[in-house]
Amino acid sequence: MDDIAVGRAIRAIRVRKRLRQADVATRAGVSQQTVSRLENGALAGMGVGSLRQVAAAVGARVVVDVRWQGADLDRLLGARHSAMHEVLATLFADLPDWVSLPEVSFAVFGERGVIDILAWHAPTRSLLVIEIKTELADLQETLGTLDRKVRLAPAIARERGWDPATVSTWLVIAEGPTNRRRIAAHRSMLRSALPAEVPELRAWLRRPAGPIRALSLLAAPGSPRAFAQVHRVRSARLPARRRGGFSDTHGTGAMRQPTASQAEPEPPRRSGTRPMGG
What we know:
The protein is α/β, with parallel strands linked by helices and 278 residues long. The chain folds into 2 domains: 3-57, lambda repressor-like DNA-binding domains (434 Repressor (Amino-terminal Domain)); 72-256, 3-Layer(aba) Sandwich (Trna Endonuclease, Chain: A, domain 1), CATH 3.40.1350. Helices cover 38% and strands 19% of the residues. It has helices at residues 3-16, 21-28, 32-39, 48-57, 72-93, 139-158, 177-185, 187-193, 198-206, and strands at 98-108, 111-121, 126-133, 166-174, 213-219, 245-247, 254-256. The chain has a 7-stranded mixed beta sheet with strand order 1-2-3-4-5-6-7, sandwiched between helices. α6 (139-158) links the parallel β3 (126-133) and β4 (166-174). α2 crosses α3 and α2 (21-28) crosses α4. The chain starts with a helix and ends in a 22-residue tail after the last strand. Mean pLDDT is 82; it is low at 238-242 and 256-278.
């Protein structure tokens, strides 16, 4: 962000609208001195919130763009999401009669977007829309986006020669303490929107019968938090090796991913957990 250019833009818009700095300050709820500093490009020490308030006061919008080592930032941000894709692709490769397509883009009735994974079970004509989230930031937006994709899914499937009898949905969220706290805070809403958990989902994937709406958490092999967004950095220590896999939001069901060494003992599971093969 070019501080001088931002200040010049705010000043130009203010003058065009025939507003005084005092008028803008009143509208934005800041001091006139803050407006003056901004227009002079002195943004050091100024909060992003104040900058957005002043911009909004003149009818403008501020977009902050973070850049780091060219395309490396895009790869960094997408690495966890891609890793979750790989785990799900492995799961469907081991399930008979399922075909899964990653990153299915669509443009239906003027609505555009991307379905993370679109899976098709031909014998039962079952269509499954999978949404992957490394971080559960806005639950209502997530559920709204998922509902929209489910609504458009039959038309998207027919473009690929599939004629679904049922459309199901599966929300997969990266395992992590922050995501678990957000899920716990909206448990009732999630239970209503996505009632099925891992044991029911596991059985359904093997023999689809009717639609299902499921929610599960996904942990990476070796680290229960590797897929989730990292918010804190602590001193390095050797983590205990763990098997990755899917679990219920309350942690009682498990759908495990295979490990590289079958000789390695499996950590004890809570009562009621069963491996994918069991």
